[in-house]
């Protein structure tokens, strides 16, 4: 059996991020074979993953960023189990490296992101290595992408939320203002026409059912209840769609009015990704 040196252990630590004792054990178990030791650690990660498959990974790091020309935006959430890990600078840098790779490789899905290679190692294997080192469930939990003539990105609350906003023309300041609005007010869509039909139907059903259970509405004709419901739906659109909301930086106007004041620009889509 070959002697395991401190230099061997450190080399394996640098390559995998695993702990010193785990690296020593991996090299011991594989008789000093460096590549086999890496595989051994990955298998340990798979075992840990299997053991923790039923655990919830509600914490994590969210990175939102755009391509250099601002025509494509990405949000990547690398989830973990505890805020102790998510607040660790090394883990934040780890998440950042994966988001950078998403941009560099122009990926279109979480599955594609897991398969790309960073310095010869796939993202899936990097996550497995990190899982083995930390002992928590880790994954690419969320991935979103937007393409537009101009995409603005925003990270809110120490990497706990990421927002992308798609615009029809370049407007960096407007994009940032809209992203902050979306982060704060959590609209369901850009405007009333963009609200999914199932969302409107569900909201209408809740409103009508609530009114029917109200003693004050007892005996009221169905037509009256339906008319009142439509009024409440209109209020819902005003409160829950981006362009109809009051602009948080100037409550005297709506977001739509603010967008018009900036120029001939339209908001076409947005993505809001938050932990939890």
Question: Could you walk me through the main structural features you see in this protein, from its secondary elements to its overall organization?
Answer:
- By secondary structure, this protein is α+β, with helices and mostly antiparallel strands.
- The protein has 3 domains: about 5-50, Helicase, Ruva Protein, domain 3 (Orthogonal Bundle); about 60-165, Tetrahydropterin Synthase, Chain A; about 190-265, no CATH class.
- About 50% of the residues lie in helices and about 20% in strands.
- The chain has helices spanning about 5-15, 20-30, 35-50, 85, 90-105, 110-115, 125-135, 170-185, 195-210, 220-240, 255-260; strands spanning about 60-65, 70-80, 115-120, 120, 140-145, 150-155, 160-165, 245, 250-255, 265-275.
- Strands 1-2-5 form a 3-stranded antiparallel β-sheet. The protein has a 3-stranded antiparallel β-sheet with strand order 6-7-10, with helices on one face. The chain has a two-stranded antiparallel sheet with strand order 3-4.
- Helix 1 (about 5-15) crosses helix 2, helix 3 (about 35-50) packs across helix 7 (about 125-135) and helix 9 (about 195-210) crosses helix 10 (about 220-240).
- The protein is elongated.
- The chain starts with 5 loop residues before the first helix and ends with a strand.
- About 35% of the residues are buried.
Strand-helix topology:
Elements: H1 6-16, H2 20-29, H3 34-51, E1 59-66, E2 72-80, H4 83-86, H5 89-104, H6 110-115, E3 117-118, E4 121-122, H7 123-134, E5 139-147, E6 150-156, E7 161-167, H8 172-185, H9 197-212, H10 222-240, E8 246-247, E9 250-254, H11 255-262, E10 267-274
Helix pairs in contact: 1-2, 1-3, 2-3, 3-7, 9-10
């Amino acid at each position: 059996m070959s002697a395991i040196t401190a230099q061997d252990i450190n080399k394996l630590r640098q390559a995998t991020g695993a702990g010193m004792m785990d690296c020593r054990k991996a090299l011991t178990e594989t008789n000093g074979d460096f590549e086999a030791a890496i595989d051994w650690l990955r298998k340990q990660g798979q075992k840990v993953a299997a053991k923790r498959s039923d655990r919830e990974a509600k914490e994590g790091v969210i990175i939102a960023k755009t391509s250099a020309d601002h025509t494509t935006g990405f949000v990547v959430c690398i989830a973990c189990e505890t805020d102790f890990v998510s607040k660790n600078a090394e883990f934040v840098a780890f998440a950042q490296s994966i988001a950078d790779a998403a941009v560099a490789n122009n990926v279109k899905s979480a599955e594609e992101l897991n398969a790309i290679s960073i310095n010869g190692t796939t993202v899936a294997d990097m996550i497995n290595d990190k899982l083995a080192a930390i002992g928590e469930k880790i994954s690419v939990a969320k991935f979103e992408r937007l393409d537009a003539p101009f995409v603005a990105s925003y990270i809110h609350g120490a990497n706990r939320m990421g927002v992308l906003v798609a615009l029809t023309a370049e407007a960096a300041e407007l994009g940032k203002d809209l992203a902050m609005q979306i982060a704060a007010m959590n609209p369901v869509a850009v405007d009333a026409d963009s609200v999914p039909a199932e969302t409107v139907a569900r909201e209408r059903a809740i409103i009508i059912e609530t009114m029917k259970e109200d003693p004050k509405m007892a005996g009221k004709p169905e037509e009256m209840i339906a008319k009142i419901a439509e009024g409440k739906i209109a209020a819902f659109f005003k409160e829950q769609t981006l362009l109809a909301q009051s602009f948080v930086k100037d409550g005297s106007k709506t977001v739509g009015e603010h967008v018009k004041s900036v120029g001939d620009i339209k908001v076409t889509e947005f993505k809001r990704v938050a932990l939890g």
